[in-house]
């Protein structure tokens, strides 16, 4: 039985994953991350999916701002996309996505790696919405 949290933004994330595979199939591995990001932006725009790029997220500690960093993409309804072009994803990459979700107060994130022979995808849901990796 599928839990509600498993379905959170599943239609949107499924579409985005499909676009990532399309981009990778057309461009192949070995290009810089920015190239894949530019191509993914074209796919999202053609599909009518609202997004922003390089969205600044503020990190707070003890109620005070201690810095900012930028999420690669923030799509409609709070879905963060973090892109990589590395040979293989590692646990620190997944931890980075979780940190971005918390800092951005976003419910769902996709980590998309274009660096290998196939697109590598990790989907995370913030714990307040029900933790799910996969």
Descriptive notes:
The chain has helices at residues 4-7, 10-27, 33-46, 91-104, and strands at 51-61, 64-75, 79-84, 108-113, 120-125, 132-133. It is an alpha+beta fold. It has a single domain (4-133), classed as Trna Endonuclease, Chain: A, domain 1, CATH 3.40.1350.
How would you summarize this macromolecular structure in one to three sentences?
The protein has 134 residues and is of the alpha+beta class. The chain has helices at 4-7, 10-27, 33-46, 91-104; strands at 51-61, 64-75, 79-84, 108-113, 120-125, 132-133.
Determine Rg (CA atoms, Å): 15 Å
* Number of β-strand runs: 6
Percent strand? 25-35%
- Termini separation: 16 Å
CATH topology: Trna Endonuclease, Chain: A, domain 1
The CATH architecture comes to: 3-Layer(aba) Sandwich
Q: Quickly give the structural class.
A: alpha+beta
Largest sheet, strands/sense/barrel: 6 strands, mixed
Net shape: globular
Just give the CATH class. Answer: Alpha Beta
- Helical region count? 4
Strand ordering within the main sheet: 1-2-3-4-5-6
Order of helices and strands: HHHEEEHEEE
Instruction: Work out the helicity level.
Output: 25-40%
Total domain modules: 1
Overall pLDDT score: 88
Model regions low in confidence, pLDDT < 50 over at least 5 residues: 1-5, 130-134
């Amino acid at each position: 039985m599928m839990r509600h949290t498993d379905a959170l933004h599943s239609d949107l994330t499924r579409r985005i994953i499909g676009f990532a595979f399309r981009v990778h199939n057309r461009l192949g591995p070995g290009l810089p991350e920015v190239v894949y990001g530019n191509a993914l932006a074209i796919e999202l725009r053609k599909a009518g999916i609202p997004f922003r790029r390089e969205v600044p997220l503020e990190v707070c500690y003890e109620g005070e701002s201690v810095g900012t960093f930028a999420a690669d993409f923030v799509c409609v309804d709070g879905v963060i996309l973090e892109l990589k072009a590395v040979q293989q994803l590692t646990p620190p990459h997944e931890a980075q996505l979780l940190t971005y979700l918390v800092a951005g107060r976003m419910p769902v994130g996709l980590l998309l790696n274009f660096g290998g022979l196939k697109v590598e995808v990790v989907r995370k849901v913030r714990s307040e919405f029900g933790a799910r990796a996969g």
